[in-house]
Amino acid sequence: MKRLLSTILVVAMIAVLAIGCAPAEQATETTAAADETTVAEETTAAEETTAAEETTAAAGGGESITIGLVTDVGGIDDKSFNQGTWEGIVRYAADNGLEESAYRYVQSNTDADYLPNLSLFADEELDIIIAPGFLFNDAMTEVAGSYPDQKFMLIDSVVEQPNVASAVFAEHEGSFLVGVAAALKAQEAGKDTVGFLGGMDFPIIQKFEAGFEQGVAAVDPNMKVLVEYAGDFANPAVGGTLAAKMYDEGAYVIYHAAGGTGNGVFKEAKGRVTNGDDVWAIGVDKDQYEDGVYEDGKSVVLTSMVKRVDLAAYTAAQEVAEGNFAGGVKVFSLSNDGVGIPAENPNLTDEWLQQIEDFKAKVISGEIEVSEVPKRAQ
User: Fold this and answer.
1) The domain containing residue 236 runs over which residues?
2) Same domain membership, residue 178 and residue 135
3) Same domain, 214 and 272
């Protein structure tokens, strides 16, 4: 047994001596190879990180997010309010490289669909859910309370919940400018009457009416403004009937704030112009010039009161992606280009555009205060 232990100890000592006497060059080469591997790995990692950062920057920055839009009965092709909001979402997605599956919408067929449709997206835990229209107020109030961790944006109304951003607009200011345009065009033609068509007779739509009539009066205090309300935002047939009524009563230009119902105004105006009459219409929410085209690129749309619901939707998505979304009221007015007229206005003269710009400056400065309440309601 002792002889066996002695043999084992001798073998162990020889192994230790062999390792200790290994050539220094071999050890150095092994260390260098390890160092080169480490440097290569670090360089590759750094290059990959830089490439990832550059890709993120190119995509617009921020995280990839999911967005849901719940529309009212008008749908995303109403050529007005809902469509403008959807276009803002689509533009954000394009600018930031979102997959098509990352943003979607659901259309409500009746008011009763608002709550379940909002809840549907909330259950899916989308990053931001947007609802355009004051008609969503009650449903948004309820669903925001039921889903306190979900981020929402409500356009055109205020819900006092910490997880709801409420986008409101100075529609009366933008409407003042198109009132100026309508009066200038009517004056040129020797006319003394213009018209306004609202969707529903609620305070928010009355803001459009109020601003329009004040803009008209700023040019000609004696010009008459006819007023009609359709009681609907998605009935072009009623819009056409009421437009015909006002045109027959002498309205030279009709400004609509009626969503899809306003499409009936354009149809009526185009039919009359095609038959030789001289009438005009003014669009709302988005540039509706194309909706009034009747031949060779000519349009019955004098101008439009652009309400940047697209900007509101885009801004909400951007804030969520950048991690600085906050609830509360966000105001879009003339001062921040939240409302106004289109950049291109083929049917307005340069002189008129300058006058409109002058009035805009006076409204922004406070020299002109535009009331939110129409004369009939004062």
Assistant:
1) 171-307+348-377
2) no
3) yes
Question: CA 362 → CA 218, 271, 337, 349, 366, distances in Å?
Answer: 12, 37, 15, 20, 6
Per-residue pLDDT tens listing for the chain (378 residues): 333 333 333 333 333 333 333 333 333 333 333 344 443 444 444 343 333 333 333 334 567 999 999 999 888 988 778 999 999 999 999 999 999 999 999 999 999 999 999 999 999 999 999 999 999 999 999 999 999 999 999 999 999 999 999 999 999 999 999 999 999 999 999 999 999 999 999 999 999 999 999 999 999 999 999 999 999 999 999 999 999 999 999 999 999 999 999 999 999 999 999 999 999 999 999 999 999 999 999 999 999 999 999 999 999 999 999 999 999 999 999 999 999 999 999 999 999 999 999 999 999 999 999 999 999 999
pTM summary value:
0.79
In a domain, 45, yes or no: no
Give strand ranges (E) for the chain: 67-71, 103-107, 128-132, 152-155, 164-169, 193-198, 224-229, 253-257, 280-285, 293-295, 298-299, 301-307, 328-332, 339-340
First to last CA, the chain: 117
In contact, 148 and 95? CB cutoff 8 Å:
no
Tokens of 294: 């009747």
The region that residue 75 occupies, defined by phi over 0 for left and psi between -120 and 50 for alpha, beta otherwise, is left
How many structural domains compose the chain? 2
